[in-house]
Structures are given as C-alpha cells and as structure tokens.
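call fold(seq) -> tokens
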Amino acid sequence: VAEELWRVQFRIRAEVLHAVADAFTAVPLGRYLLNTLIYTVLTTAVMLIVATLAAFAFARLSFRGKDLAFTLFLALIITNFVTVTNLNLRNTFPGLILPSVMSVFYIYLLKENFAQMPDSLYFAAKVDGTSDLKYLCRVLIPICRPTIVTVVILKVIECWNAYVWP
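ret:
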C-alpha cells in the first residue's frame, strides 16, 4: 500500500511539473509575471510617495482653501479608461501605472494618522529649524511606520490582483 501511494504521489508531481512547463511554453507566462512585478513595484513606490506628501500637506500645512481642496479631492472621480485613452497611453506602462497612483483611501488614511501627532511635536521641530520635508522624513514617517507598512501591503495586494485593469 505504501509503495502504491508513493507511485501515485510521484505521478501527481510529474503531472503538475508537466502542467507548469506547458503553461510557460503555451504563453509567455514569464513575461506576464515580470510585467506584473514591474507594475506592482512601480505603482506601489510612486503611490507611497504621492500619498505621503499629499497626506502631510493636508494634515500639517496651512493654506487657503485646504478643507475645500480636501473635500473636492475626496469627491473627485476620474474614469481611468477614458483618461488613459485620451492621453494615448493605452498598452503602455505609464497608462497602467498613472491611474493607480492617486489613491484617495491611502491618502485619507495617512492624513488621519499624521493629524493624530501632537502639534507640539511639529512646533518643536520648527523651533529647531527643521523644514517640513525633514520633519516628515525624520519624525512622522518613523512614527507612522506601521500605517505606512499597512498601506504598502494593501497596495501590493491590490496591484498584484488587478487582472482586469491591464
């Protein structure tokens, strides 16, 4: 019985390896995986930079019409396909990546996280002569690292599972 079980397992493994080999030879599956990896890494990196800077601007900087701008930003819905088509970006990496860079949910999540930091921390950094960008990079990002890691994980999963958009 043990020998027969071993033979069945060996046959199943051989069939699985044969199926994987067929998948890689029937279509350019390696290229598809590479494209998905490039899309996921670039989109996540650019989105993280854009979302962090936008969240910081809405959470900490004072400028005229900030609340209105944030409300309009949250209400803004752009049809991705129409935008990509009008800009002649179909079948290109920029056309795939750019619509995914602006993620209102992640900007809102980071904005709320940045806004929870005490104002005294920001003012102390300003008294020490720290610029806003240096404050963001050296104070806020290290403190908010768990939220940023969560955003990265969610964005990677979102990009990796984006079968329909490409």
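The mean pLDDT is 85.
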